[in-house]
Amino acid sequence: MKRDRIVYGIYMISVITQFFSLSYSGKGAYLLGIKQNMKTTELDLLFFISFSLPVMLLMITFMDQLDFYLFNYGRFQITRQVSFLRIIRSIEERIFKIATLMLLIQFIFNRTFTREAFLLFISYALICIMLINLMLVISLMMPVTLGIIILSVIHLISYYATYYHKLPALLFIGKFVHGAEYLTQVSPIYYFMIDILIPIFIISFCFITLVVVCDHKDYF
Amino acid sequence: MIVFEHVSKTIKGHEILKDLNYTFEDHKIYGLYGPNGSGKTMILRLACGLVRASGGKVIINDGVLGKDFAFPPSVGVVIENMELLPYLTAFDNLRELGDIKGVASDEDIREALERVGLNTDKTVKKFSLGMRQRLNIAQAIFEHPDIILLDEPTNALDEEGVESIYKILKEEKDRGACIIIASHNKNDFTRVVDQVIKVANETMVEV
User: Fold this and answer.
1) Calpha distance B22→B24 (Å, rounded)
2) How does DSSP assign A105-168, residue by residue?
3) pLDDT at position A104, please?
């Protein structure tokens, strides 16, 4: 929370970097740091920066929130016997608001207003919100078990597999199941699937960290 | 009442506290003092359930901490790095925390804020260090808990602030609370406590 202004400031710089990267390369738009035009595969420096910075900043913000809600404000709550799930919900709600704001900033900079781009944005935002809420509900309903941790790890691996293969991929019973080839022809769905994995990845990472931290009560 | 029975605490192989045996009774104020890193704050953390003992047990009234309940059923705590929500007022912050257990009324909150001398509608982020400390104390007392644990409660307070906190502690003691204060300097609390305890060499000794 203390670093909010710095984080947003750096985030704005990263978004502007992306904007110039996009203008310079002319290779396509970026969404949450992922290139929309997936035909080119090179990993140049600008692409790497624009890919990693928003995610890293979201992580920094998350760690900041974690610090505050678990170790500062959280101490007031847990000594009043609040369940850890309530604390987790506070953190996830906050992260969700920040992620949505970051998404909006990104779109304002990186999208020229066309009807198609606008519709794409609305659909993407709706799907993101739906998925993040779903993750939130699942994490609140499910007890902290090995199962949910494994599920989160699968999300993480799937995210990296998707990035590596440039195809939607999901780790399923020990094998990577790739999105059907025709999906790559139907651009909106394909792009959605790529981008949707990022919020899932972030939420999964947050969840795993929370589970590990909350289970280790001596941390307080 | 808080009972430490053969309590020890080891972190990463380093023994912080060793075989503590002590009973903190109700209607009393205890003052822990000792050099930095002697384990004063650790004793408070153990008493409120924020950390678990490596050996022995902490008994709160008739229940064992960590076995019968994760945290004491009625406790008010101020330990280092505790911060309230910066975007809320003092009243709204206490209302938010009070809603968790539902034992404190709006009147209780107003009374606690009045006792610590906080009468403002500012949000917490605009508070001075001293005002934050007063609010933390109000947070520890507004639900009239059985146990009150305060780490360096007079930090950042002016003379008048210190006097008002001492007055509150005496009132809480008369109400029946068991109060433990920790400070690196025993002169901070000798006027108000019933029992001074020195924490050093991984143990505590009555002075």
Assistant:
1) 7
2) HHHHHH----HHHHHHHHHHHHHHHHHHHHHHHHHHHS-S-HHHHHHHHHHHHHHHHHHHHTS-
3) 67
Distances (CA, A) of B92 to A59, A160, B64, B146: 29, 44, 33, 23
Q: Alpha helices of chain A — where are they, by DSSP H?
A: 4-25, 45-66, 73-78, 84-110, 115-141, 146-165, 187-215
CA distances to A116, A122, A147, A206, B56 from B194, in Å: 75, 66, 52, 47, 26
B52 inside 8 A of chain A by CB: yes
Cross-chain CB nearest to B82 (options A75, A80, A82): A75
* Tokens representing residue A219 in the block: 């941390």
Mutate to test the interface with B, among A77, A80, A82, A89 (most CBs of B within 10 A): A80
pTM for this entry: 0.68
Put simply, whether B75 touches A (Cβ < 8 Å) is: yes
The structure tokens 């909106």 sit at A188
| Residue (of B175, B171, B136) closest to B152 by Cα position | B136
The 10s digit of each residue's pLDDT in B79-122 is 887 889 888 999 999 998 999 888 999 999 999 999 999 988 89
Q: State the nearest Cα–Cα gap between B179 and chain A, in angstroms.
A: 16
| pLDDT per position as a tens digit, A174-185 | 444 444 444 444
Q: The complex's ipTM?
A: 0.86
State the pLDDT confidence band at A123, using cuts at 50, 70 and 90: low
* CB contact A108 to B (< 8 Å): no
The total of other beta-carbon atoms located within 10 Å of residue A196's CB is 19
The alpha-carbon gap from A152 to the nearest alpha carbon of chain B, in Å, equals 27
Closest CA to B204 of B1, B30, B29, B11: B30
Tell me how far apart the alpha carbons of residues B45 and B149 are, in angstroms, rounded to a whole number. Answer: 9
Residue-level pLDDT at B92:
94
Chains A, B: CB contacts within 8 A come to 51
